[in-house]
Amino acid sequence: MFELDTTIKNVRDFLFTQQGELLIVGKENKFHFELMGQQVTDFLISNPNWFFLYKDNVYYSELDGIFYSFNIKSKTRALVTERKMSTVVNCENEFLVAAGESIHSEIIDIESGKVLLELPFLANNPFFTSRFYCTAFSAFDKLYCYNRETYELAWELNVAKYGISITGKNLSFKGEVTNIIGEWNGILLLHITHSKILGINSEGKKVWEIDNFLTPQEYVLFSWNTAYSVKSSIQWLLNAEQGKLYLLGRRFIMEFDLSTRKRTILHDCSQVPSEQGWSFLTGKLVDSYILFRAYSQSLGPNVIGLFDLSCNNMIWYYKLEDADNSFLKEPVMKDNKIYALDDKQDLRVFKPA
User: Fold this and answer.
1) Which domain of life is it from (predicted)?
2) What is the pLDDT of residues 204-262, one digit of tens each?
3) CATH of domain 127-232
4) For residues 298 and 323, what is the distance between their CA atoms, to the nearest angstrom?
5) Spatial distance between the Cα atoms of 278 and 7, rounded to a whole number of angstroms
6) For an engineered disulfide with 227, which of 62, 126, 176, 221 has Cβ 3.0 to 4.6 Å away?
């Protein structure tokens, strides 16, 4: 379905502007803003750490944690804050940062730099909607909900009582928020320890549930031990409009019909000879497809591909042949092309065959 169109060398990271232009961060630690292959600007920075794009500004941190913005049009750099930040989660006109000098997180207005909320803990599972939800790395069993107008705490929910017991295994686990999945019909969907999905209303009350969606035999396949290990080994993809929820976990792609609460295994890599040893890592919904990244034979994330939800078939994949190479980040589909960056700083661009 796709074939390699071109390979761009010496790419450290890449982004797309609102206008669809490709913004490349080069190996020499420079911003290269490319429009139709023509370099528009070349701005030197030292040791870039992470990047995200908002309107015409690229926000980034250097390895010392200092937070800057770079305006693409005016080609100027500005200091956002001198406080050292270690991680960032971007959402609309706000972003969540983890302060590098102490164990807490902040929500900052992107344009003004104003601190809207300071949390006394490191936020985990951040989710921005009409409200802001998160858990804490120190307490996976509590969900916090904040009003986004005032950023005051609206409520907190202890989910420890929503744990599970595994039939025939003499095992039980307290409830912990593994993932905040998203919103469906005004209900916040939470993945709770191992194999439970809870639906929470705007007041923090449980109103919906899927219990034990895995069989006892499937626990071994997913190798889930703690909330943190579960979160790192699976990914949820929600299509709220269609009422469909997809789980990428190890070798499986599962579908949940939220109206009927029925589970279906759409794909099992172990049943396909060419996909033996695959383990899904990340994915995203693109129209009727899942664009994914996967491990192969424990060699690292060296496979990208497309799974067609309209026919439940793997319609395309690309595998790196070099055992020492892997795809650094999940692929991006833009204007019917697929962009994938590997560990050797080659940005591969695939076009329809």
Assistant:
1) Bacteria
2) 999 999 988 887 667 666 655 555 556 556 889 999 999 999 999 888 999 999 999 99
3) 2.40.10.480
4) 10
5) 25
6) 176
On whether the CB atoms of residues 309 and 288 are closer than 8 A, the answer is yes
- Helix (H, G, I), strand (E, B), or coil: what is residue 151? coil
Q: From CA 248, how far away is CA 280, in angstroms rounded? A: 6
**Among 64, 67, 62, which Cα is nearest to 108's?**
67
Hey, what are 261's tokens? 């609460």
The amino acid that residue 37 corresponds to is: G
Supply 38's token pair: 């023509």
Q: How far is CA 189 from the centre of its chain?
A: 16
The structural domains of the chain, with segments of one domain joined by +, span: 57-120, 127-232
R_g of the chain computed on alpha carbons: 21
Residues near 212 by beta carbon (within 8 Å), at least 6 away in sequence: 164, 167, 195, 196
Phi-psi region of 281 (alpha: psi -120 to 50; beta: other; left: phi over 0): alpha
CATH class label, 57-120: mainly beta
